[in-house]
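Journal club prep, shared notes

We agreed each person brings one worked example of a sequence with its structure written out as tokens. Mine is SDR family NAD(P)-dependent oxidoreductase. I'm keeping it raw so we can talk through how to read the token line rather than staring at a rendered picture. Sequence first:
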Amino acid sequence: MNIQGQAALVTGGASGLGEATARELARLGAKVAVLDVNLALAEKVAVDIGGVACQCDITSADSVTAALAQAAAAHGPARILMNVAGIGTAKRVVGKDGSAAPLEDFARVVNVNLIGTYNMTRLFAAECAKLAPLEDGERGVILFTASVAAFDGQVGQQAYSASKGGLVGMTLPMARDLAQHGIRACTIAPGLFATPLMKQLPEPVQASLAASIPFPPRLGKPEEFAQLAAHIVANTHLNGEVIRLDGALRMAPR
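Then the structure, token by token:
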């Protein structure tokens, strides 16, 4: 799909990998809607890139429906959905005091990362399927954001790994399901990236994490994630695929 002039939605677009993706799509000529629970931050990004900010809780059907309508009113119906919003947590199943991990923590992460992404995708896809086809009969492109934790989950990452593993497992059936509508679906599984959350860690910890990456031995740059996301949109034959973006990193148990 030619990105120039297309309407795009980026969830989690107010910061980190989502912000980088929103900026890259705008640079390539897309009309970008920045969707995020933090409206103030989303507005800052939207102003910078000439887009529109939409407050959106991806776990709420009403919130997603309202955001889709707001974005469509500003830019027309979207053909590109970048699912980047997500949360993380780390809880051992049995704590140091011998107590079981709270079920609510596990459910919250799965609800946002997996169910929320599915919720956003199903509502987008229903609207996208109504659009006129482009070259090759294509109507739209969907990106999921998983993690290397889907494959190499560390101690305490049961909830996060399960949620991201769910996205990996959903990729191929989603692509097969939506093929009849000319909508593609792919997933990026990033490794260790220099996101705002990562930058909150002490410098020695960041350096140690970067050194664990075979090559290049540094944290990934958000713009590298964004470049791959944009390439997936542009390369029509990429479909149903999960791509690790990790510098050949394989995570240790802890």
